[in-house]
Amino acid sequence: MLDAFSRAVVAADASTSVVSDINSLKQFIAAGNRRLDAVNAIASNASCMVSDAVAGMICENQGLIQAGGNCYPNRRMAACLRDAEIILRYVTYALLAGDASVLDDRCLNGLKETYAALGVPTTSTVRAVQIMKAQAAAHIQDTPSEARAGARLRKMGTPVVEDRCASLVAEAGSYFDRVIAALS
Amino acid sequence: MKSVITTVVAAADAAGRFPSTSDLESVQGSIQRASARLEAAEKLAKNLDAVAQEAYDACIKKYPYLNNPGEANSTDTYKAKCLRDIKHYLRLIQYCLVVGGTGPLDEWGIAGQREVYRSLGLPTAPYVAALSFARNRGCAPRDMSAQALTEYNALLDYAINSLS
């Protein structure tokens, strides 16, 4: 498992040279608290994100919860919720480390084959991941939809920066895209 | 590679939970200490060749027998290899400063080092002399800030300990 720092070291070691690009690491340090806020925003809302993403996936494809569907009976629905949480958890780890290696090694490696063997439909899984990607962006920007959340609206209330952590939103999005690419 | 962040992630993963507040706090602590480390890494990267050359010269001065025929510093090829080895140690120390842990030194420097030197018939005392010279050569604030120098010296001590 690597993080942003050890990734730089491994890359430098491949050419037997010192780590010369210190400035990008300094930026990682300078924006460190934003990153921690972003991780905290996802971790604090994880169970809600997971259940909403799976519910959204089922809303769009009711066949999943009818007899013969992949979210029927409860045992398989529970497995589905568990898997969505696992994927979100590894994306969160990757966001914390600033590197995708933990996601690749511990979550995505062999996931597609496992799902194929178990008969899990890829398109539905990808849809749930897409919903989680949008949710993660909203939580990192701290802009949950007021129209839809109503009385249950919850904001993290961290100090808002000018660009609403655009680079972190993009980075988190890239990890979700990695999951989607690995599944399809 | 072991660092504060990967240790935290590995522990959270073993327990199957999202990063907790205390996990994030320990990462934040490591981030706050990181600027000194990165300063030392930046300065060392800039001057690595000079630091290595001085350390090499000092150790040959201390152990002139190494220049005798058949010894480790006797031919031009051997001389170049000796200097290269010192550079390797300094480079690994720079990696450790970047990562914020001793992982690179442990994995790429220290693991197997004793066996290699024994089978090649190399003495470790000159390495200790070279790294000790570098250890005592650094000076704050001339070379880097005091905090950065502390981090740098601690890693040199770690490498010296592994060799002695």
Describe the protein's topology.
The complex is a heterodimer of chains A (184) and B (164).
Chain A: H1 4-14, H2 22-30, H3 32-44, H4 46-60, H5 74-97, H6 101-108, H7 111-118, H8 122-141, H9 146-149, H10 166-183
Chain B: H1 4-15, H2 21-62, H3 76-99, H4 103-110, H5 113-120, H6 125-137, H7 146-163
Helix pairs in contact in B: 1-2, 2-3, 2-6, 2-7, 3-4, 3-7, 6-7
Notable traits:
heterodimer, A: 184 residues, mainly alpha, 10 helices, flat, B: 164 residues, Globin-like, elongated
Mind explaining what this structure looks like?
The complex is a heterodimer of chains A (184) and B (164). Chain A has 184 residues and is mainly alpha-helical. Helix content of chain A is 71%, strand content 0%. Chain A has helices at residues 4-14, 22-30, 32-44, 46-60, 74-97, 101-108, 111-118, 122-141, 146-149, 166-183. The two termini of chain A are 24 Å apart. With 164 residues, chain B is mainly alpha-helical. Chain B folds into 2 domains: 1-32, no CATH class; 34-163, Globin-like. Helix content of chain B is 76%, strand content 0%. Chain B has helices spanning 4-15, 21-62, 76-99, 103-110, 113-120, 125-137, 146-163. In chain B, helix 2 (21-62) packs across helix 7 and helix 3 packs antiparallel against helix 4. Chains A and B meet through helix 1, helix 2, helix 3 and helix 5 of A and helix 1, helix 2, helix 3 and helix 4 of B.
Order of helices and strands of chain A: HHHHHHHHHH
Our count of helices of chain A gives: 10
Overall shape of chain B: elongated
Cα shape of chain A: flat
Low-confidence segments of chain B, ≥5 residues, pLDDT <50?
none
Helices of chain B, by number, come to 7
| Low-pLDDT runs of chain A | none
Main beta sheet of chain A: strand number and arrangement?
none
**How many beta-strand runs of chain A?**
0
N-to-C CA distance of chain A: 24 Å
What is the CATH topology classification name of the largest domain in chain B? Globin-like
Helical percentage of chain B: over 70%
Question: How much strand content do the residues of chain A show?
Answer: under 5%
Q: Mean pLDDT of chain B, as a whole number?
A: 92
